[in-house]
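LAB NOTEBOOK - FOLDING QUEUE
OPERATOR: T.R.
BATCH SIZE: 2
PURPOSE: Compare the predicted structure-token outputs for two unrelated chains run back to back under identical settings.
PRIORITY: normal
REVIEWER: second-year student, initials M.K.

ITEM 1
FIELD SEQUENCE / FIELD STRUCTURE:
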Amino acid sequence: MRTYTVSLNGIEMFCETDGSGEPLLLLHGGGGCHEDWGYAGREDFVQHYTVVAPDARGHGRSTNPARVITHRQCASDMLALLDHLKSRRCKAIGISLGGNILLHMATMQPEGMAAMVVVSATMYFPEQARAIMRQVSVENQPAAEWETMRNRHKLGDDQIRALWEWQRGLKDSYDDMNFTPDLLRRIQASTLIVYGDRDFLYPAEMAMQMYRAIPRSALWVVPNGGHGPVFRENAPSFVKTALTFLAK
């Protein structure tokens, strides 16, 4: 395993690489970090690919001096990382924030993505998600949540406050995540869309919208699955399904 920091797009991006073979980019969810993949089959993916697991800007050990986070900017960051690694055509898996980043990457540079698995991603933020975003408050976070966030994000409490402010601010964001069917039809990558049928942020109907729009797509709705239904007890079936899809 190798860890390193890359200077790109005005930030210092922390990244972990492990394994051998063709690259597989693993993108964590919002408020998470690269270590989350330890609960979603990271070691199994390492047996088949060179796993590249970065921390998105402002997350984990990656800096974000401007304090602003958009999915589009994060996609530009990841494309710059792939440039640095001299790997402009790769396979990738992204969860929530990570899946949204992949949608941007695959529409910004369609030729750069060979195949991808997008978990709990969305074309846009529906009202039920915005209602939850409105409830995020820096001031009212319990001590246990502070402890959890400090274990994930290593650059101090100001970094954590900025992440909660970003999550709350998404309630007023309409341009960053605004994928029309026509835009999604630009995607060339084979795409597996993974959704939980009980996702509290994005209803499963949104997965069907993406499935109909993305040309080379497949859809897996996880029974009794919530948002990001691929962790812990769900990891073995997720790994098996993802590896089979990516190998085709």
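ITEM 2
FIELD SEQUENCE / FIELD STRUCTURE:
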Amino acid sequence: MAVKMFVTDLDGTLLNKEHRISDGNKKAVQEAVDAGVVVTIATGRMYESALPYARELGVDVPIITYNGALIRSAAGKEYFSSYLAEQDCRDILDFCTEMGWYVQLYSDGVLYFAEETPEAQAYEAAAGVRGRSVGRKGLCERCVHVPKMLVILPDASMTDGAAHRLGEAFAGRITAVKSDPHYIEIIKPGVTKASALRQLAQLLDIAPEETMAIGDSNNDLPMLKAAGRSVAMGNAGPDIKAAADYETADCNADGVAKAIRRYVLGGED
């Protein structure tokens, strides 16, 4: 069955290691759009961080952000949103403070952190957004309309264990998923890129089997499994590759472009 919707992750997938979309990937996306395929983005990033990339691609469809917690068009029309409970946000802040972990949150499209630490500065640079330093009390006061919180750990060997501890401590209240060697995304239970993919496909009147997803990280796994067909990046881990139907080149070798041409357009990569 032909692919009618192609959903791509951003970091480590559509973006190269310099956080840019290569000319090769841009050209392949345009070829797919010209062929009538809906191409869109599903990312853990905040909407404001993902929007410039959607515009760069010329994507004029709803985009999936905050790991599925918000679906919004490039023009700003909201199709779906899911927010963490205020008390859960405050309890998570307390927990992370006790553990000595850096944590940031997003409220009404603004990035907040307690202090302008190296973690905050590195995230701002990678995401292309400016955050606001509001202190520990200020974070607690901004636990409204929070689609996602993010823990950033300095040692990648800590991430899996920290995600597990968060999942145990807040079982049934949140989902904690590793999205980068140093990142743990915290979202509402049931919210995933997969749930958003299904909602978006239904919105666009596209059957699930007519969708294809591509990604590289643990937070992409539900989406890869939910799509009609799936592609793992060459830089993905073994578990991601095992779950996908196909494998393509890595993010520095136009893996998305190769996947589009081979598995969507049916040509040579």
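REVIEWER COMMENT (ITEM 2): The longest strand covers residues 102-107.
FOLLOW-UP: none requested
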